[in-house]
Each structure stands twice: as structure tokens, then as C-alpha cells.
Amino acid sequence: MKRVFKRVLATGDWHCGHQVGLSTPAYHTPTTSDHKFVKLANVRRDVWNWFDKKITPWKPIDILILNGDALDGKGDRSGGTEQITPDRKVQCDMGMAVIEFIDPSIVRMLYGTPYHTGNGEDWEDILAEKAGAKIGSHEWYEINGKIFDCKHKLGSSQIPHGRLTPLAREILWNKEWSFQNNTPLADVLIRSHVHYYDQVDHDNCLGFSLPAMQGFGSKFGSRQCSGKVDIGFVIFDVSNNGEVKWKTERAEIAVLKAKAEKL
């Protein structure tokens, strides 16, 4: 039966190359026998198994929006100690393996943060070329008459009740720009970077901060950050008459659940 909608997978922050980044089974073998790296390999495996289980029922995917930080980079902050490999060419191969698994008809990509994807170079260009994708910094896509405003970077907040504010601000800035006829007026606004999911319906625009597809366990996140982190993705079905429906898939990974040490 012919579909009367286009299905869009919105996802980002794969961080391919990191020990707990998204990776296909070819990269699930522990890099050493050290118990710490065995645990991290188990995280990679379990995150992938969840992704496989949750994505497959949504196929076929018409449009993949890969919203930045597909690669993790050299890991300078940790001296590369958190990388499966710091080689960005290999990380592009890892990302391509995920895209091939998703098997979308159309791929669109957004640039991530320079720390992960190149301070001078844009290594995500290589992945985009492999995937036959267009890539940009801030892009607008019209899907069955609805405008999707997509960009990687989003501000965060250290207070739980302040986390919706950056999304609302982005929506209002879109309206300001569009009133001056400089950008399209967004119906759906998508951001990433913060690794947590939030959604706001504000002033006739749906705003989303996408969950990440990187597991917990980075040194930077564990030692220097606080706040909720989400793993998952968002599916949009945009009907031929412009109706937008969405479903957020968020993971609960048993190996990532902290336990108290009994003394």
C-alpha cells in the first residue's frame, strides 16, 4: 500500500569512535581485556541492540536527518584514552555502517561541534560524501509543506525547569529572522548537542532537543557534568496534507544503571 506520509528519522550525537558511541556489531569487541573497557564494550553492544530493535519496526525510513556530532574526534581532552579509534576516517566508516543499516532514501546532515568533528577540517564532509548526503550548518527542509529548521547547537541550563527556555528562544529567533524574510518560518525546530530530550509546542512551532545515541560513561560527562541524559531518537510522520505526528523512542539500558556499593 502506498504511503500517504513521509517518515523522518531525526537523530544526532552518535559520537562514532567513542567507547560508548553508536557502533555496529563489528566494533563491539573490547579494545583491551581491562574490565573497564569490557564494560564499555557491553554498553556499545546494548545501545546498539536497543537501536536495532527500535529502528527496525519504523522502516522504511524516507528521510534521515543526522543532526551533528556523528563523529567523536580525537578525544584530546582525555588524550584519546576514550576512543575505540581516534582516526576520523575510520569513524566515518563507522558512521556509514550505521547509515547503511538505517537505509534511508534521503540523507541530510548538519555539522556538529568543532571539538568532535574538526577545528579546521570538517570531517563530517567525508561521511556526507560517502552517504551521498547534503550537509550544512543551519538548514531548512520542506517536507509535505511543513518547514523543519535544523541545527546542531543548542544552549543548556543547569536547572531542570530552565531547560525548555533555549528551545523557546530558538523558536522566537526563527520568527524574528523570518519576519525579516531572511529565513523560512519553521513549523518544526530541531536541535541537538545537549544530549537530553525536551519538547515544546510554542507559538505554533514544535521544538525538539533530540536525545543522543551515545551511552553514558565519558570521563568529561561523568566527572564534570550534572543533569539528565537521554538516549534515543525521534520519528516524524508528515502526511501528504501536512499533518505532523511524532514518536520519541528513549532507551533504558540496564548496564548503564548505577548501583550503590554496599560497605
Commentary on this structure:
The chain is an alpha/beta fold and 263 residues long. The chain has one domain (5-256): Purple Acid Phosphatase, chain A, domain 2 (4-Layer Sandwich), CATH 3.60.21. The chain is 26% helix and 23% strand. It is built from six helices and eleven strands. It has helices at residues 35-55, 88-102, 114-117, 124-131, 165-179, 219-224; strands at 5-11, 63-66, 106-110, 134-136, 138-143, 146-151, 188-191, 198-202, 205-209, 232-239, 244-250. The strands form two sheets. The protein has a six-stranded mixed beta sheet with strand order 4-3-2-1-10-11, with helices on one face. Helix 2 (88-102) links the parallel strand 2 and strand 3 (106-110). The radius of gyration is 18 Å and the shape is globular. The mean pLDDT is 93.
